[in-house]
What we know:
With 332 residues, the chain is mainly β. Helices cover 0% and strands 60% of the residues. The protein has 3 domains: 38-137, Immunoglobulins (Immunoglobulin-like), CATH 2.60.40; 141-236, Immunoglobulin-like; 239-331, Immunoglobulins (Immunoglobulin-like).
Amino acid sequence: MKANKTIFLLQSAAGAFILLAAPTAPAATAAAQHAPHIVCDAPVYDFGRKDNRQLVEHTFVLRNTGDISLEIQGVHPACGCTVARIARKTIPPGESTELSAKLNLRGRKGRVHKTITVNSNDPSMPALILALNGVAVTEINVNPDRVFLGTIPSELETNLSVEISSTETSFLITNITCNSPLFEIANHTVESGHVYRLTVSTKPPMPATHLRANIRLYTDNPHYPHIDVPVIARVLGPVSVAPTELILARVGGRPVTRYIIVTPGQVKNFTISKVVTPLPSITTSIVPMPAGGYRIVLGNLVPDDRLNGTSIRLLTDIAGMPEITIPIRILP
């Protein structure tokens, strides 16, 4: 490469002119910067006011304005209530892709701000933040939104009240159903069209179990044709037994060992005196547990048709519960 020179014209003391040539640095040239560049023209979506029983759905458009392919390395919603899917992860220069987002508003009230982070190979924007903003509203309020009875005795009636109300719309409760016969629901009108009070009561005696049920309210409001109210309770009997049914899978005639755990419930001190089995070949042992109760060990159980439909009987000294019966079911 030839160096550029600068010519200087000098005049000597004798009046002669002298030419001098001095080398100069080559002219600086700007090197082209090759890189992808991620752009979203509308990175924030405001969904306004939306009913909290609904999903917010939106599609963000991501463009590559660089001159190298953009590689999407990850899409990360801020929480589990948001799901995001990108159509393709490689976007050539000048092209675009779509990122679809869904936000579940269930159980949310008031202002909502959820973000999605898009990681890429853009050196100037390695993490692009997208956002879903708005307000979750409910026209009909349920307080509390579920009937949680906690641990309740099987022999005593337990009840809890739920208020169904609205200041933004009017509605009438036209029918009430429950998928469990163990509960009774009474409806009291506090203010017709706006406020109702439900009383949920147990119907003893209740079976000792972890109980889940659902109450469904039908209304004349077209936006709320029905409202579900979950019911959760742990019913405490004299003792707690697990499992309540012995389910055995056929294992080619090989004998198996299973366990039955009996722990205190309403009765704190009790004795299991004997285990009665349907076949004399089944071995048994009664092992006291340090915190109270017993572990029953059943050995030499052969899962075949001889046991199907039979039961294990535990003899006790509990008043009103002389024995505990655990049915046996053999899976086909």
